[in-house]
Amino acid sequence: GAVVSQHPSWVICKSGTSVKIECRSLDFQATTMFWYRQFPKQSLMLMATSNEGSKATYEQGVEKDKFLINHASLTLSTLTVTSAHPEDSSFYICSARGGLAGSYEQYFGPGTRLTVT
Amino acid sequence: AQSVTQLDSQVPVFEEAPVELRCNYSSSVSVYLFWYVQYPNQGLQLLLKYLSGSTLVKGINGFEAEFNKSQTSFHLRKPSVHISDTAEYFCAVSRSTSGTYKYIFGTGTRLKVLA
């Protein structure tokens, strides 16, 4: 149980275009979802926290107009990277919390590698 | 501010040798601690967690960790490593921020198992 999927697993896009990444909780209802960014050989950096039906809360330094997050249902959150540039190339990982996990634990998706050319 | 410190950025060890990956945290309140493993180009896989109860926690793949409140540590151990254990390991603390529990990750330790 507690499986989180992400789609796509990797994507290449041209500079200036927008890319949408989906995060789904497959077997539980995710009251809260988190989006992380990971640069090569570095740790995960929390970008934002989203609760179903409400606006996302962004961490300091993260551009909310650049990284649009929608948590439309208890099983789906999306991250849209708008007007992507090469510096947005990174590994994006989502996680979800809810169901039997209680308040403390998150379940992680497999990640999406974004390359902007 | 709460932090998580993984002192060793890289740990090389020979196959079948024991290993310890260190994690220290700073906190004055109850903490919930986790160890995750990440293989190249993959997400995080939970190895083990400490929420409450016994301070010795056993996880998957033969890993275990001991919660030491007085030393604010949660070191990860394995008595005999395999080549397949080569990966990045992250320690994380779950703490409440404005009513929402969020993770604080350590910087990671790259375990390289040598034949």
Description:
The complex is a heterodimer of chains A (117) and B (115). By secondary structure, chain A is mainly beta. In chain A, 0% of the residues lie in helices and 54% in strands. Chain A contains no helices and eleven strands. Chain A has strands at residues 4-7, 10-13, 19-25, 30-38, 44-51, 57-58, 67-73, 76-81, 90-98, 107-108, 112-116. In chain A, strands 2, 4, 5, 6, 9, 10 and 11 form a seven-stranded mixed β-sheet that branches. Chain A has a four-stranded antiparallel β-sheet with strand order 1-3-8-7, with no helix packed on it. Chain A is globular. In chain A, 37% of the residues are buried. The model of chain A has no long low-confidence stretch (mean pLDDT 91). Chain B is mostly beta strands and 115 residues long. Chain B is built from no helices and twelve strands. Chain B has strands at residues 4-5, 10-14, 19-21, 24-25, 32-38, 44-50, 56-58, 64-68, 73-78, 87-97, 100-105, 109-114. In chain B, strands 2, 5, 6, 10, 11 and 12 form a six-stranded mixed β-sheet that branches. Chain B has a four-stranded antiparallel β-sheet with strand order 3-9-8-7, with no helix packed on it. In chain B, a hairpin with a 2-residue loop joins β10 (87-97) and β11 (100-105). Chain B is globular and about 45 Å long. The mean pLDDT of chain B is 92. The A-B interface holds A 6, 32, 34, 41-44, 46, 49, 57, 91, 93, 95, 97, 103-111, 113 and B 32, 34, 36, 41-46, 49, 51, 90, 94, 100-103, 105-108, 110.
Could you give the topology of this structure?
The complex is a heterodimer of chains A (117) and B (115).
Chain A: E1 4-7, E2 10-13, E3 19-25, E4 30-38, E5 44-51, E6 57-58, E7 67-73, E8 76-81, E9 90-98, E10 107-108, E11 112-116
Parallel strand pairs in A: 2-11
Antiparallel strand pairs in A: 1-3, 3-8, 4-5, 4-9, 5-6, 7-8, 9-10, 9-11
Chain B: E1 4-5, E2 10-14, E3 19-21, E4 24-25, E5 32-38, E6 44-50, E7 56-58, E8 64-68, E9 73-78, E10 87-97, E11 100-105, E12 109-114
Parallel strand pairs in B: 2-12
Antiparallel strand pairs in B: 1-4, 3-9, 5-6, 5-10, 7-8, 8-9, 10-11, 10-12
